[in-house]
Amino acid sequence: MTDKREFTSIVEALPTTIPFVGPEAIERRIGRTFDARLGANESAFGVSPKAVEAMRREASRVACYNDPENHDLKMALSAHHGIRPVQVVVGAGIDDLLGLAVRMFVAPGQTAVASHGAYATFIYHVDGFGCRLVTRPYRDDVNDLDALLSAAKESDARLLYVSNPDNPTGTWREAEDIERLIDALPSTCTLLLDEAYVEFAPASAIPRMTIDPRVIRFRTFSKAHGMAGLRVGYAISDERVAQGFDKVRLHFGVNRVAQVGALASLGDMDFVCDVVERVEAGRKDYDRIGRALGLPTLPSGTNFVTFDAGHRERAEMILASLQEKGVFVRKPGAPPLDRCFRVTVGTAEERAIFEERLTLVVKDL
Amino acid sequence: MTDKREFTSIVEALPTTIPFVGPEAIERRIGRTFDARLGANESAFGVSPKAVEAMRREASRVACYNDPENHDLKMALSAHHGIRPVQVVVGAGIDDLLGLAVRMFVAPGQTAVASHGAYATFIYHVDGFGCRLVTRPYRDDVNDLDALLSAAKESDARLLYVSNPDNPTGTWREAEDIERLIDALPSTCTLLLDEAYVEFAPASAIPRMTIDPRVIRFRTFSKAHGMAGLRVGYAISDERVAQGFDKVRLHFGVNRVAQVGALASLGDMDFVCDVVERVEAGRKDYDRIGRALGLPTLPSGTNFVTFDAGHRERAEMILASLQEKGVFVRKPGAPPLDRCFRVTVGTAEERAIFEERLTLVVKDL
Q: What pTM was computed for the model?
């Protein structure tokens, strides 16, 4: 029997590659565990003890469905940001919400714009829904907002994706530059402003929290709140866009443990502030290491630091050697950033392991 | 400024209604909590203590991302079912996987077939991806497989959805009938066999676990494992279909706590068997109550029992009165099942509350 159960043409055309190979998968392949896991921008400084306590309590209550409205978390987030609950959409991480945004705004064949080498999962969704991706290179290691804007105009883009502070560079654009971009957007184009790392950013990089129909802002509990494995992110948008999310989102997508954990962590901002301070100290440590080893670092407003190895081959060699020596880091794949590698701010202990191994690697180059 | 940031035509056309209003939302609206929550087919018999223990341990580890490959759980599931790991796809509940299946197989304008009044979330996804839904009524309170098959042939359907045992009836078709359906499927149509309630079903209702390119089987930890709030389900399919899921799924969609909880529960099948026995006892209790009050019950191979109130108005009145008296149940909305209401098997205590309140309701009719 010939199997005629074909996938849709969009799905059939998709590659089988996935956005990120997890460190566990690499460990299974190489047959050893990493001594320092510094490649996924996970928080080295853990989770709020109050959140852990709340999650432990909730573990015995999972027989009941989670609240599909995410009511309590949504109320707390709206109070936190001084906006209305109908302007908040909770999802299973920013990844989930980016996919929904593409589905909502970009029909197959229409265009989305991003920097060349931008967040892989956004690109995964653009491809996944049969949309066209137009990219512009980073310039001077920051998102080139003018070039992205021109590309959006030229390609009649429905979405323009910018992460600020940026991943994978760690750099940022000032709030006034973002606001100027918003004012210049074509009237058919929505800005997806991915602020996953916002807690680590200088205040000057963060636009004022106003609700604007031209922008969807994305926040997460994965980074400063230390809850990457929990899958909670949220979008801030005007009510019309939030209602659009409600038409397509997986209503039971955020599980009970995640809901109560995020809520408790939001109520423990002292913990988050402490994490941010520790990350700042760690970034300085990485700057020192980079200077000592002739690998200058890019400015970072995130919980990772991008080291400049000068050219691609050297960066790839460093990445491979570090992995061989038990240190997991990642590197941007697209020029001009492919000369760099990206290291999450670890604990003092992890940073010491990283420094020791990197020193050996550089000696061997 | 006129806002020209339009949703795609598919999303624009979607209603703002959602598949299920959660009991929490009803409680918020009516301003009181339910004494007995028997409307969402949640397990009244809780979660494996081993799973609770595993989840509690994991609560302090959520700073790390979950394994996007769901490796450990997938290995355990494949061992459990005697199939290969590449034939298992783990998702955030069956809801998640049903949406992906629609996206994979049904292009906008193409057709999916289901019984009239079938699982609302499947229909939500069919609508959500701009596909056409063709339905056939239940006959004698079971899925009318012949009618569904004819509809699939006539409409050139890409998917045929059947839940077995069925929700919202609780009834089932025999395995041999399902197998005959599979053999008769058009060569372009895939059967989505939703087996969410399979643990509660008679053995004769469960087709042999063979991998078949014509079928995707869906299982869940929400029901017998008592983990509805955790969001873990899985699909069993041939490798080609599983690879299709990998092209479109949210790779980090199943959180760490859910992964370890499901894994631990799968390792505690004694607990699950005990739940199944308790549910059987509860079903008998409901049968007795139904006979005593002149509300006959449908046969059930699930963790709920469907009571026949004779006609729609009477069923709606019972539903509303029960809710007023603090008991949350649901009812099918579509004829001919709209004459029924559906009650989850609760604990002995919850069943006593239900019996007491239902007795009052019936007296007042």
A: 0.97
